[in-house]
Amino acid sequence: MAIENSTISDPLVTIVTVCFNSEPTLSDTMNSVLNQTYPNIEYLIIDGGSKDQTLNIIRSFEDKFRERKILFDWISEPDSGIYNAMNKGIHRSNGEIIGIINSDDWYDPNAIASAVNHFTLYPKAMLLHGNLVFHETKKPPRTIKPKSQKSALIWQGMTLLHPTFFVKSEVYEILKFDERYQLVADYKFLMEAFKAKYPITYLDKILSHMRAGGASEAFYQRIVEGHRIRRELGFGLIVTWLSTFYRVGITLASRIKRCIRN
Questions:
Q1: pLDDT attached to residue 230
Q2: Residue 197, C-beta contacts closer than 8 angstroms, at least 6 positions apart
Q3: Could you give the CA distance from residue 242 to residue 245 in angstroms, rounded to a whole number?
Q4: Nearest to 18 by CA among 45, 51, 55
Q5: pLDDT for position 156
Q6: Rounded to an integer, what distance in angstroms lies between the CA atom of residue 191 and that of residue 207?
Q7: Nearest to residue 55, comparing CAs of 45, 63, 68, 64?
Q8: Residue 105 has pLDDT above 50, yes or no
Q9: What is the pTM of this model?
Q10: Predicted confidence (pLDDT) per residue in 211-233, tens digit
Q11: Which residues 6+ apart lie within 8 Å of 64 measured at CB?
């Protein structure tokens, strides 16, 4: 498989996949890492103690990663939630750049090569994000592009696309996912990165694919957690409540439009 043209020295990139009872989708995720065009990858799977065939699927890939000379390791043990598992993976990583792709998502084949090349073009950047393709049952896939302005994050919530993130490891040495939040700790991480003035760069390419459903669909809890985060980060009471009402409004309007279309 051809590797994208590059002027880089192929830094080690760690990819972390968090999973739990992921038998139906995990193979797609793992194959997307296995088939990357970039050569220097460490792949870590953090499993939460699955009871289905997830562990057998993981074991079935060990030789495949070894043949591709991809550093591969995994653990399976109970955790306290998805962000606890992500923090475990980050703690175990050795790469200069870290990407996180969950077990119901998958990477575009050139995702890692494109990200590394972009970091080479913008060496001061500490966090990179891009576009993803959203897959819904019985609907054609659609490409989503992020809204990267800080103001959009305050009013609308997580407007950057977490499955497309690639982050320099030195950022994770300072910022971790806040495990008190079950659904939107990635939002708090991003807001803290903005607050700390870490340079963030946007790559206008499809990096990841995401399936509809899962924890990200829990609307009410996401609203509540987002409200708490904005208060914790020091936003005023008026701004926080206006932001929350705005988030509820645009979400309900989007769902009504979807129902009308269907």
A1: 85
A2: none
A3: 5
A4: 45
A5: 65
A6: 22
A7: 45
A8: yes
A9: 0.88
A10: 986 554 577 788 888 888 888 88
A11: 34
Nearest C-alpha neighbor of 88 from the set 212, 190, 179: 179
Distance CA 207, CA 163 (A): 8
Neighbours of 86 (CB within 10 A): 25
Tens of pLDDT along 3-59? Answer: 343 334 799 999 999 999 999 999 999 999 999 999 999 999 999 999 999 999 999
Tell me the Ramachandran region of residue 40: left when phi exceeds 0, alpha when psi lies from -120 to 50, beta otherwise: beta
Distance separating alpha carbons of residues 199 and 126, to the nearest angstrom: 5
Count other C-beta atoms under 10 Å from residue 170's C-beta.
10
Question: What percentage of residues in the chain have a pLDDT greater than 90?
Answer: 67
DSSP string across the chain:
-PPPP--S----EEEEEEESS-TTTHHHHHHHHHT-S-S-EEEEEEE----SSHHHHHHHTHHHHHHTT-EEEEEE---SSHHHHHHHHHHH---SEEEE--TTEEE-TTHHHHHHHHHHHSTT--EEEEEEEEE-TTS--EEE-----HHHHHHHS--S-GGG-EEEHHHHTT----TT-SS-HHHHHHHHHHHTT--EEEEEEEEEEEES-SGGG-HHHHHHHHHHHHHHTT--HHHHHHHHHHHHHHHHHHHHHHHHH-
Identify which of 66, 64, 57, 14 has the alpha carbon closest to the alpha carbon of residue 38.
Answer: 14
The Cα 90–Cα 98 span in angstroms is 8
pLDDT digits (tens, 9 = 90+) for 170-212: 999 999 999 999 999 999 999 899 889 999 999 999 999 999 8
Q: Would you say 227 and 244 are in contact if contact means Cβ atoms under 8 Å apart? A: yes
Spatial contact of 79 and 88, defined as CB atoms under 8 Å apart: yes
